[in-house]
Amino acid sequence: MNSAAPSEARARLDAIVKAYDVRGIVGEGLTAETVEALAAAFVDEVGAAGGRVVVGHDMRDSSPGFAEAFARGATARGADVVSIGLCSTDESYFASGSMDAPAAMFTASHNPAAYNGIKFSRAGAQGISLDTGLAAIRDRAADHLEQGIVPAAEPGTVSTVDVLADYAAYLRSLVDLSGIRPLKIVVDAGNGMGGLTVPAVLGTAAGLPALPLEIVPLYFELDGTFPNHEANPLEPANLVDLQRAVVEHGADLGLAFDGDADRCFVVDEQGGAVNPSAVAAVVALREIARVQAMGESDVSVIHNLITSRFVPEAIEAAGATAVRTRVGHSLIKDQMKATGAVFGGEHSAHYYFRDFWGADNGMLAAMHMLAEFGAQQAPLSEMSTRFTPYSLSGEINSVVDDVPAAYTRIFEAFTDRAEFDELDGLTVTGTTAGDEAFWWFNVRPSNTEPLLRLNAEGQDAATMAAIRDEVLALIRA
């Protein structure tokens, strides 16, 4: 391996190692050399020498080559690499959990084609963030780049395993869809990994029995150039094709997966987007009821602080404890483990399951929605309305050069009429003057850009719009 100057190596890694994963532009910060160094560092940090490391990758053109580079670095430091090939991110979590082995997944999720990255897991699909090992991996990798990777006394091996059928069977064992009413669903895989996993889990491609589902596929061809639209369903523009197709086909609902298929978004029969908070509430109630029926009395469910107020209300009404957390993938995985929560939901359509090693799984959330919806006769739009009683703004980003000044303006404007909470950014809660209509909003600075992110909710649309517009004016003043 060619060595790099210390400052160059560290700068290269600082640019691509983010709060919860590695992400960068292929051929710039993210190269085969860098990946080899990160692999060696990962093996060192998690103590995988002499043990197994799972490596999977998505459909991006650069992913197979990066997976091979990772195998070189990992085996050089003595780990036995188990290659699971093309897979979704939650499929890699399944492999990590079922094999009790650390894992590396090559994907840039919903980012454009020029990007790639790595999502790391400790054994048992446990998350790794900057605070829990990723910073150490970065520092070790810098040493490997500067000094070269020192081979272990006994290099590791590489073997190949296909886990798709086992993954599909495991999800089927968690949610039984065999008895639901027949449903027609349009699924937009966005040319991402849902094109591989949906036919296996919801269809018969993995050799499982047929379910009462008629699936209309949209963009199932695996193509890391994303020729139809970006694989980011959080952006409304990327849902348009699915919404149109649901109406045209007279489907009962639509599902949209992001590029690595770990997030799932739902569209009703009219083409309306179902809020991820509503999905979180539906799945939470199903999981609470399931474990209560098994005799579990002390049940906890996690939600981050920018999900709808309805989510904790529904959890508490079902006799469970709602645990409010900061926003963040690895953080919520850590909280799932610490609290023993049966389920966790985020506004961004990440859904976490105790029965899935505390990891997130968009497919499993979709299956819960199909099970709940398929057990009753009402249209999904009616069910969605029932689980979305309040009005949410969605996340609104504003470029802000001076975040403390914006915070000061907000504090001064709301000091006499609201409560403040600084768990994650700034959350402000109050009621409309002369009325009992509640509202709240949260502003959080971006970790990587000069942005403030606003989320607001009101008891009704007018209340939400008023508070949203007032806060945006303060942020952008």
TrEMBL record:
<dbReference type="InterPro" id="IPR005843">
    <property type="entry name" value="A-D-PHexomutase_C"/>
</dbReference>
<protein>
    <submittedName>
        <fullName>Phosphomannomutase</fullName>
        <ecNumber>5.4.2.8</ecNumber>
    </submittedName>
</protein>
<dbReference type="GO" id="GO:0046872">
    <property type="term" value="F:metal ion binding"/>
</dbReference>
<feature type="domain" description="Alpha-D-phosphohexomutase C-terminal">
    <location>
        <begin position="395"/>
        <end position="473"/>
    </location>
</feature>
<keyword id="KW-0413">Isomerase</keyword>
<dbReference type="InterPro" id="IPR036900">
    <property type="entry name" value="A-D-PHexomutase_C_sf"/>
</dbReference>
<comment type="similarity">
    <text>Belongs to the phosphohexose mutase family.</text>
</comment>
<feature type="domain" description="Alpha-D-phosphohexomutase alpha/beta/alpha">
    <location>
        <begin position="16"/>
        <end position="139"/>
    </location>
</feature>
<keyword id="KW-0479">Metal-binding</keyword>
<feature type="domain" description="Alpha-D-phosphohexomutase alpha/beta/alpha">
    <location>
        <begin position="281"/>
        <end position="387"/>
    </location>
</feature>
<dbReference type="InterPro" id="IPR016055">
    <property type="entry name" value="A-D-PHexomutase_a/b/a-I/II/III"/>
</dbReference>
<dbReference type="Pfam" id="PF02880">
    <property type="entry name" value="PGM_PMM_III"/>
</dbReference>
<feature type="domain" description="Alpha-D-phosphohexomutase alpha/beta/alpha">
    <location>
        <begin position="166"/>
        <end position="271"/>
    </location>
</feature>
<dbReference type="GO" id="GO:0004615">
    <property type="term" value="F:phosphomannomutase activity"/>
</dbReference>
<keyword id="KW-0597">Phosphoprotein</keyword>
<dbReference type="Pfam" id="PF02879">
    <property type="entry name" value="PGM_PMM_II"/>
</dbReference>
<dbReference type="GO" id="GO:0005975">
    <property type="term" value="P:carbohydrate metabolic process"/>
</dbReference>
<dbReference type="InterPro" id="IPR005844">
    <property type="entry name" value="A-D-PHexomutase_a/b/a-I"/>
</dbReference>
<dbReference type="InterPro" id="IPR005845">
    <property type="entry name" value="A-D-PHexomutase_a/b/a-II"/>
</dbReference>
<dbReference type="InterPro" id="IPR005841">
    <property type="entry name" value="Alpha-D-phosphohexomutase_SF"/>
</dbReference>
<keyword id="KW-0460">Magnesium</keyword>
<dbReference type="Pfam" id="PF02878">
    <property type="entry name" value="PGM_PMM_I"/>
</dbReference>
<dbReference type="InterPro" id="IPR005846">
    <property type="entry name" value="A-D-PHexomutase_a/b/a-III"/>
</dbReference>
<dbReference type="Pfam" id="PF00408">
    <property type="entry name" value="PGM_PMM_IV"/>
</dbReference>
